[in-house]
Amino acid sequence: MTLTAPAHRSDARTRRPAFACVLRSEWIKLLSIPASLITLGGIFFIGMTGSLFLAATLESSGVPSVPSLERTMGDVTMPMVISGQIIAGILGVMMIGAEYSSGTIQLTLVAVPDRLRVLWAKALVAGSAVTGVAFITALSTWAATYPFYAEHGLAAPLTGPGVASALVGSAAYLGFCSLFGLGVGALVRSTTAGSIIVFAATLLIPVLSSVLPYGLLSRLIRITLLGNAGDAMSRVSDGSGPFLDLWSGHISTAAGWVIAAVSAGLALTAGAIALRRRDA
Amino acid sequence: MIRVQTLTKRYGDKTAVDGIDFTVRPGKVTGFLGPNGAGKSTTMRMIVGLDQPSAGIAEVNGRAYRDLPAPLREVGVLLDARAAHRRRTAYKHLLSIAATHGIGRARVGEVMELTGIDAVATRRVGGFSLGMGQRLGIAAALLGDPQTVILDEPTNGLDPEGILWIRALLRQLAAAGKTVLLSSHLMSEMAQTADHLIVIGRGAILADGSMRDVITGATPSSVRVRTHEVERLMAALTAPGVTVSIRADGAIDVEHLSAEQVASTAAAAGIVLHEVTSVEGSLEDAYLALTAAATEYRATTSPSGANS
């Protein structure tokens, strides 16, 4: 038993550890709690079973008479996007909320006093883990359901216009949701409160806004909320129509990306300001 | 080396830490003693950059904590033994902290062995007792082989064996020339472990000195004498400025005279003494005397028999 570590370099005290070290720490944290593995697995499981269910019941629900890439890809991506956005957002919230509830935030910030470094590392880890899992899910779902649609001549080949971008878009949208969750989590410092905000922003308010009286405010809410951006990002569109139409509520794929990125960016900025200014 | 200057923390109108100054030097165990709510934890949190001071500075090795390039290699910190994710194993917990400084698995294994938690390395922290949590926290603090160690109530929840172990560890760290700052509200623990004491109460420093200086400065020393001729001795000793009191067990306490003076006086009067003992105040007495005015939460009944 030795009290002192014999073999560390003399310059280790005077040199700031690389950002990669902080990243590695965050990966270890993410992968060492069962809850995060369950959430990541959950995205795959729900996306896959949801789409397989839609594909398997294609006949009984009525086969469309006209082949439509949009309709087929909607069945492929929507189950993952609808439930996955909440799961991804909660994972983002958990990345930091769990640190506050368990008290490990102290250890984290004592080890890495530059708090923004911690937040960016968490963002990179949450974003890439979620986007990666979501992309694998989307691609596997597409492959698994392909035969069902091919049988009826409804298959959406990867080379079809907008098909690949819908797969990438749906995965990226989940990644943005996790970043949004992380920012919210850093702001509210609670997994429960953060999860409620994620649920409201992705699912609840977009649904509620559709029953709001028709007016500028309800239109604006419809267009700017995270949930509707996901719909746009994962949809196969023919590229026609305006970038963004406030009155009809039309959001183009590109506008979806912008809205999701801005939402995630604003949440992260708010979280970063809170993390820096407040006592841990 | 830890240096704190006019360090202040205010929460609204309430001042938790009120412009305190102290220096913690290497090669010694410095005890940071004070009642609950005195500002010990807040001070420690400011030293390691978790809380922003309202005024003043706190430096470790001449730099603000957040300016240390590789903080874990300079300062080991244990603030809360419960600070670990319940569902994470002890090994992964330590590994995640070690990774921030590129500290390898070998060192993680070493600190686990050193703190005696290697047997439970793969168990989830949620099942740990408070004592095990303390050991895990100390393991985390030692990861970077730091020159300075800051521990908040490290003996909290430890069993007697654990307390002996940590006492030995802290002595060993100090003997190796490291700076050790240890907070506690347990006087017995401090009396056994610390060389130097900083006593804090209501956010202000009440005493800062060696253990002996703090005790003698805050409590009167006295001479305890036993004899069969109590009344004659009391009469012989009575002089201006000398306090003589009789204890319930028949012994006589004499203040402001040395044991030698008491013995000579008795000999001159032909009184036979059965016992002459110099009684020094205990740390507990000193502490109670120092914090009497500064205790925030105190029962209305004062502890009896505190004057041992």
UniProtKB/TrEMBL annotation, chain B:
Q: Which InterPro entries match?
A: AAA+_ATPase, ABC_transporter-like_ATP-bd, P-loop_NTPase
In terms of superkingdom, the source organism counts as: Bacteria
Quick check: keyword Electron transport in the entry?
no
* Gene Ontology terms for molecular function: ATP binding
The protein's matches in SUPFAM superfamilies, at most eight in alphabetical order, are given as: P-loop containing nucleoside triphosphate hydrolases
Is Transport one of the keywords? yes
Q: Which UniProt keywords apply?
A: ATP-binding, Nucleotide-binding, Transport
The ABC transporter domain covers which part of the protein? 2-227
> Which PANTHER family does the UniProt record give?
ABC TRANSPORTER, ATP-BINDING PROTEIN
* Family recorded in the similarity comment: Belongs to the ABC transporter superfamily.
The protein in question is named ABC transporter ATP-binding protein
Species source reads Leucobacter alluvii
